[in-house]
Structure formats: structure tokens, C-alpha cells
Amino acid sequence: MFEESFFIYPGSSGLQLQDEQEKHYILLHPNASNWVKVNETGLEIAKSLQKETSLEAAANSLSVKYGISKETALQDVLQVKEQLTKEGILEKRHITPRSPTLHSVFFHLTNRCNLSCSHCYVSCPDEKKSHHLPASLVEQLIAELLDHGGQNITLSGGEPLLHPEIRKIIIFAASKLGVRLLTNGTLINKEWAGFLADLNVQIQLSLDGSTGKIHDAVRGKGSYQKALQAIEYLQDAGIGSRIVLCATIMNHNISDLENIISLAEKLHIPLVRFLALRNVGTAKRQWSNIGDGTRLSEYENFYQYVSDLQINKKRNIEISCGLSGVLLKMPDAFLKDDLWCPVGRRLVIDSNGDAYPCALMMDTPFRLEEGTEGLKEGTEGQRQRV
């Protein structure tokens, strides 16, 4: 990690990205939204430039190490310097650090789900071991969030529609701030769509394939048609503009992602999100089937494809790659802001009541507050904090 000009993430070893030919590293500017990918030679040159070594000295070192001519080495140094300069990595910026303001909470309301998706980052239990966040606790945390100037919450699970008090929670929350509901869509019927139509709620539906064959291979037989039916119900209820489709990238659909974008466009969905597969929960047990074999180049090609779509506005819908803290296209407002990562601005609460700084950091070393100690079964079979 460098003190002055840029970071090699994480630490001195760098963020290593292995593809078929060679390793790559990500260089991050310490206080600007600038990053660049380099190979090992580029990393070595970048280190020399960071130390303000002369171009000639850097080229001589490269020439000796790799047995190439000084002219060739100097050309390599100039090319890397041009790349780093273009991406703003060598630009020195001094920003006064400031504390982030909490603006949202991500609730895992329940660990119960009606599906058994192979890629889920939560290990959904059987019925006897399922538990939920009490509605009273959720309402208390929402009140505290509002006191801190909070603006929105996310309701997830498991499947949040299986929470015994989900409607009470949605009604309470939607009257006070923005609500994003994450659901697999299989439980949404005409009556549910009518209920959501009258509330300030954005509905994110999971769709992991453009066809039933692909989607159902991940989520179970019949789930694709139920998801499409949910979309139809929501659109008929007049809230089609509030629908978001979300797909997790894995072996099963890596070649189908562009088709998912086309399907979303055909269905008049305003936004589609693509999430990276996480090697935790159920996905960890299924990794040999869903994660192994997907090459870095395939991810890279898709992210480049999405980036080009965003820059050139080739699609009529918005596309997000859903990488917390990493954006393929930086919003203009963020260029003046040194805080684009959600850590410190978003709190994550799991169905046990444990608190974490990020959905990607839901592990014991990052736990902010333990909620399981002191929980007991309530009179109606749900857990209550004491």
C-alpha cells in the first residue's frame, strides 16, 4: 500500500486477477474514484513512477530484469505512464476526510424461503429452524434511522413475503421513507400487486435466465413462469415503473446475460441488475456446479459490454452490475465526492438481529453488534429481543 500517489489493493501484494495468460493488478487512487488494471510489468513500472524514479532509471531497471533493450524498456515505461496519467492515478489530490452519514438499512427480515436456490448466499433452514426479525424491532430501527436523517430501507430475506408481519412492516416503513422489496416473485398475486400499488415501494424481482430452462435450473421448476406472472400483475396494477429485475452471474447463465437485458427491455422493465456470485451460504456448497469454470475473461467481457452500453446509451433501460463500492460508470455527482462506497452509510441487519457494515461483509470478524444473545421465543412463536 502506498502513502502518496496510489494504492495497490489490498496491501502490498495487490488485488490479483488471474486469467488464462497472466496475473493482473488493480491500482486505486487513495482519495479519488480512479482505478486502472495493469499486468506485472505495469505494476513494477507503476511502483517506480510512484517513487518518482526517473523514466531512464525505470527503463534501465526493466532492461536488466527482463533482458530487453533499453529502447524497448523505455517505450514500455512511457506507455504505462501515459495509461496512469490518462486514468488520473498519478494525480495527487488532497481531500479532507469526513465521516459518512447513515442513510439506509438493509434488513434480512427472515431466513425462511419457499425456494432452494443453488446460488443463495444465505443457508435457508427447514421450517422448524426458521426465525424472523420482530416487527417491533424493525420499526424501532426505522425510527432510529429517521433520527439520523435516513432516507430508505431494503427488505430482504430469505423470502421477505414469508415474514408473518410483512404487511405491517411495509405499511409502517413506506409511510416514512423509501422502501425496496427484494423478492423471488413467486408469491406475488393480483391481491399482493394491488396492496403494493398504494405504497412507496420499489420491487426487485429475481430473474436468473431469459428462459424457463435456465432460470428454473437455478431456482426450481415453475419459478420462471411465476416470476413473469408477478411482473404482469404488478404492471396491471400500474406500478411497472417500480420493477427492477436482478440476476446473479454464474455458470448457468454467463452466456445468457445479454438475453436477460433484451428480455427486460421487451417487458418494459426500467432497470436490470447483475450481481456477482458469492462463495458463501448455499452457494459455497454448490460451488463446483455454479461457480467453478466461469473464466475471468467472461466476467470481464460482460462488464465491458455493460460499460459500453452505459457510456453509449445503446439500450432503453438502465443497467447496473451491483458491485457494492465499485461502479462501472461513475455518476457525475460522485466525481466531487470522496465517499462512493456504502460502508458507513448503510447498515445491514440479519434475521438474528446481528449488525454488519455491508452485505458483502456479513461474517463474524465484521459484526458490529450481536443480536442473537438474549433472544427468546415469544408467545406467538417468533423471536423477541429482551
CATH class of the largest domain: Alpha Beta
pLDDT under 50 segments (min length 5)? 1-20, 372-386
Structural class, by secondary structure, is alpha/beta
Note the run of SSEs as H and E: EEEEHHHEHEHEHEHHEHEHHHEEEEE
CATH homologous superfamily title of the largest domain: Aldolase class I
Strand content: 15-25%
Quote the CATH topology of the largest domain.
Answer: TIM Barrel
As a whole number of angstroms, the C-alpha radius of gyration is 24 Å
Widest sheet: strand ordering: 11-10-9-8-7-6-5-12-13
Alpha-carbon distance between the two ends: 45 Å
What is the number of beta strands?
15
The count of domains is 2
Q: Could you say which overall geometry the principal axes of the C-alpha atoms support?
A: globular
Helix content: 25-40%
The largest sheet is:
9 strands, mixed
**Mean pLDDT score:** 83
- Compute the number of helices: 12
What's the oligomerization state?
Answer: single chain
The gist of it:
The protein has 386 residues and is an alpha/beta fold.
Structure description:
The protein is of the alpha/beta class and 386 residues long. It folds into two domains: 7-86, Arc Repressor Mutant, subunit A (Orthogonal Bundle), CATH 1.10.10; 104-366, Aldolase class I (TIM Barrel). It contains twelve helices and 15 strands. A nine-stranded mixed sheet has the order 11-10-9-8-7-6-5-12-13, with helices on one face. Helix 2 crosses helix 3 (70-86) and helix 4 (135-147) runs parallel beside helix 5 (166-174). It is globular, with a radius of gyration of 24 Å.
